[in-house]
Write a structure and sequence with these properties.
This is Transport permease protein. This protein is an all-alpha fold and 274 residues long. Helices cover 76% and strands 0% of the residues.
Length: 274
């Protein structure tokens, strides 16, 4: 017997339909991670190794503007870099589904068009929370800590996850644009300079002036600077507007990116195969 689904007509019915479909896709992606835990382990190993490498191998040669422990300066940058590298994780998952024909199968079903991309974003957010928890524990082990209140610490983590949510939509959009997995590997390479030309490992004041300006206005720098301020970690300073208002920019940048790439991702998904 073939069941004909009832197509929603009212805005409320369409919204409910989209939420249900998004949760179905989220569960599907989480189930894949549970059955293939090596993907999660591999994703966690890079930031952990980076913490050990920069904290212990290069840390003795690094100077923090205004003084302070380099590992405390480093950890907010590592948190932010992990959120940015999530672009590659999302992009790879999206382009893989597209190449394998899974995206077309979703499109052939009576599913809300927004449900597929929203489900992808929710699954990646849950994965990002796990990444951040592991990195925080790793930071505590190597001597990092926060010096502000518990509420300020939660606010810093919230801004980091807000940045990750914005980067998810960039990853979804780019993944829908790429023709194959090989081109996705090339896109991964762009994440390294974008995360390095920021205040993640070195203060912009220590860079050439023109490069320091670019680094200060990097969305990653805004969130990392805000996290350092809320955590009470060293490295704050600078005379530019961007360096003195990191919390404000850490809100404005992600909101602007979401406003741009979320509708672009939904529109691109609807146009696939046309």
């Amino acid at each position: 017997m073939i069941l004909n689904p009832v197509i929603p007509r009212t805005p409320w019915e369409r919204a409910k339909w989209g939420v249900i479909d998004a949760w179905v896709v989220t569960r599907r992606d989480l189930t894949h991670w549970v059955r293939q835990p090596t993907q999660i382990i591999a994703g966690l190993m890079f930031p952990i190794v980076s913490v050990l490498l920069f904290g212990y191998v290069f840390g003795s040669a690094m100077n923090v503007p205004g003084g302070g422990n380099y590992r405390e300066f480093l950890m907010p940058g590592m948190f932010g870099q992990a959120m940015m590298f999530g672009i590659g994780t999302t992009m790879t998952a999206v382009v893989t589904d597209k190449v394998l024909g899974i995206t077309n199968r979703f499109r052939s079903m009576p599913m809300a068009r927004s449900g597929v991309v929203v489900g992808r974003s929710l699954a990646d957010m849950l994965n990002s929370v796990l990444d951040l928890v592991v990195l925080v524990l790793c930071g505590l082990i190597v001597g990092w800590t926060w010096h502000g209140g518990f509420g300020a610490m939660l606010a810093a983590l919230g801004l980091l996850l807000l940045l990750r949510f914005a980067f998810i939509w960039i990853g979804i959009y780019v993944g829908l644009l790429l023709p194959n997995a090989e081109s996705g590997a090339a896109a991964w390479g762009l994440l390294f300079p974008l995360s390095m030309i920021a205040n993640t490992f070195v203060a912009p004041q220590m860079m050439p002036s023109w490069l320091g300006v670019i680094a200060e206005w990097n969305p990653l720098s805004a969130t990392v600077g805000a996290a350092r301020e809320l955590f009470g970690n060293p490295g704050m300073g600078g005379v530019t507007w961007a360096s003195q208002n990191p919390v404000l920019l850490a809100i404005l940048w992600p909101v602007a990116l979401i406003a741009i790439f979320l509708p672009l991702s939904v529109r691109r998904y609807r146009k696939l195969g046309r």
